[in-house]
C-alpha cells in the first residue's frame, strides 16, 4: 500500500516491524523521528495496530499510519482507523502528534487525507471523539470537516457523513 500524500505530509501505512519499533520507542538506524516522537498516544496506537495484526493479519487499509513530513521523511505523529467499517459503514479514527509538531496544521492535514482515503474505500461515516478539555483536537476534527454530533460526561463526539 502506498503513502497517502498531501502537500506537506506522507501518511505512511505502518508495517508490523515499524509498529514494534514505535511501541519500543526504538528508532533504529534508518528511521527519522522528531526528537519527542513517539509520545504515549502513538505508542498506544501502534499497540492497537499490532493487536489487529495478530488477530486478522495486516488490517490495512483500515490500520495504523505514521505521519511523516514529505521533506526529509521525519516522523511526527500517528493516525489510523480503530478497525474496518461497522454495519453502518462507519469507521472511527484516532491521531496524535509529537508536541514539537503541533500548531502547524499537520494533524488536520493528515486527517483530511485519511478521510479522503476512507471515502475512496466506500466508507459512509468517519467518527472521532476527544475529551472536553482537548480543544486542539476538537479544532483538528472541525478543520477536517467533522461536525460535533453529541457530548457525554467524558467525550465530545464528531462525525462526517461521506455519502
TrEMBL record:
Stored InterPro entries: Acyl_CoA_acyltransferase, GNAT_dom, Ribosomal_N-acetyltransferase
Keywords in alphabetical order, please.
Acyltransferase, Transferase
Taxonomically, which superkingdom?
Bacteria
Provide the protein name: GNAT family N-acetyltransferase
Q: What is the lineage of its organism?
A: Bacteria, Bacillati, Actinomycetota, Actinomycetes, Kitasatosporales
Which organism is the protein's source? Kitasatospora paranensis
EC class? transferase
TM segment ranges: none
- Pfam families the record matches: Acetyltransf_3
Tell whether Lyase is among the UniProt keywords. Answer: no
> Taking every annotated instance into account, which residue ranges of this chain make up the domain N-acetyltransferase?
9-163
Q: Which GO terms describe its molecular function?
A: acyltransferase activity
- By its UniProt entry, which PROSITE patterns does this protein fall under? GNAT (PS51186)
Give its E.C. classification number: 2.3.-.-
Amino acid at each position: 500500500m502506498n503513502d497517502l500524500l498531501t502537500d506537506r505530509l506522507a501518511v505512511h501505512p505502518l508495517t508490523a516491524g515499524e509498529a514494534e519499533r514505535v511501541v519500543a520507542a526504538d528508532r533504529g538506524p534508518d528511521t527519522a523521528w522528531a526528537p519527542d516522537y513517539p509520545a504515549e498516544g502513538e505508542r498506544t496506537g501502534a499497540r492497537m495496530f499490532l493487536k489487529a495484526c495478530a488477530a486478522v493479519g495486516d488490517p490495512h487499509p483500515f490500520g495504523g499510519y505514521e505521519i511523516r513530513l514529505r521533506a526529509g521523511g521525519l516522523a511526527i505523529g500517528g493516525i489510523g482507523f480503530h478497525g474496518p467499517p461497522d454495519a453502518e459503514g462507519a469507521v472511527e479514527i484516532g491521531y496524535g502528534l509529537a508536541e514539537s509538531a503541533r500548531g502547524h496544521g499537520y494533524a488536520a492535514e493528515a486527517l483530511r487525507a485519511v478521510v479522503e482515503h476512507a471515502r475512496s474505500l466506500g466508507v459512509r461515516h468517519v467518527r472521532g471523539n476527544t475529551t472536553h478539555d482537548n480543544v486542539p483536537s476538537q479544532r483538528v476534527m472541525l478543520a477536517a470537516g467533522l461536525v460535533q454530533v453529541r457530548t457525554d460526561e467524558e467525550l465530545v463526539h464528531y462525525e462526517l457523513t461521506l455519502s
